[in-house]
Amino acid sequence: MSTFVSVTEARAMPGLRIACLRGVPSPWTEAAKAIFRVKGLDCQYAGQAEDDPDNAIAGWAGNSSVPVVAFEDEPLRTGWAEILLLAERLAPAKPLLPDGFEARAEAIGLSHEICGEMGLGWAARNFLVGLGFESDGASGFHPKVGKFLAGKYGYRESEDYRQRVIAILEALSARIAGKPFLVGSSLTAVDIYWAAFSNLVAPLPAEKLPMHPRFRAMWESVPDDVKSAASGELMAHRDRIYETCFELPVPL
């Protein structure tokens, strides 16, 4: 099982480090951890500790969002694409992006549809915010939490987040039908991103993903019509990728 150090300790270390939110499987963070693992890159995990100053991650990176990836004395990286490209540079012998221009563009585009603005993670998170507002906290994020997240992540009442999530799940289901991977004939970052972000719709069981119970309850509150947009084949693909690419149980 991977171990965590304090944020203060991580800041002073050399090499590759990643700051995480303890107890919560941020899909952006979990995907980055899996990418480093697949590539065989040694990466030190860090999280807020008792001897850290308050909001230590924000004190390091300028805001509290995770992940924060540091490599040597290079500028910090927080975006999914820049973290992926760093990993590609550090371990080019185990690529997670195809070589050819068209296939590479396809992989990056699909990754954005999962990780980027208007993507699966963005839409699912805002959908849960809306569920909390509609149900007064009976499902989705509690309204008090939702109000904070709505401001942070750009929630808009006019957006149909439910349909956006469904459309992406249906498109990924169509892509995986009869195929071993989402892009081409070998593992790419797209497969890892799908696996990590799938938990926003249907989280892995607690013995594999031991997240805080409050977050599990919120993520499990996604309605059945949304969950069913992910085919059985797509969910089975998620399970295979977790078994081969992620550390289980997931260290949080």
Radius of gyration in whole Å, from Cα? 18 Å
Biggest β-sheet description: 4 strands, mixed
Number of strands: 4
Oligomeric state of shown chains: single chain
Specify the structural class: alpha/beta
Dominant shape: globular
H/E series:
EHEHEHEHHHHHHHHH
Describe the protein in words.
The chain has 252 residues and is of the alpha/beta class. The chain folds into 2 domains: 4-90, Glutaredoxin, CATH 3.40.30.10; 101-245. The protein is 50% helix and 7% strand. Strand 2 (16-20), helix 2 (27-38) and strand 3 form a beta-alpha-beta unit. The protein starts with a strand and ends in a 7-residue tail after the last helix. 38% of the residues are buried. The model has no long low-confidence stretch (mean pLDDT 95).
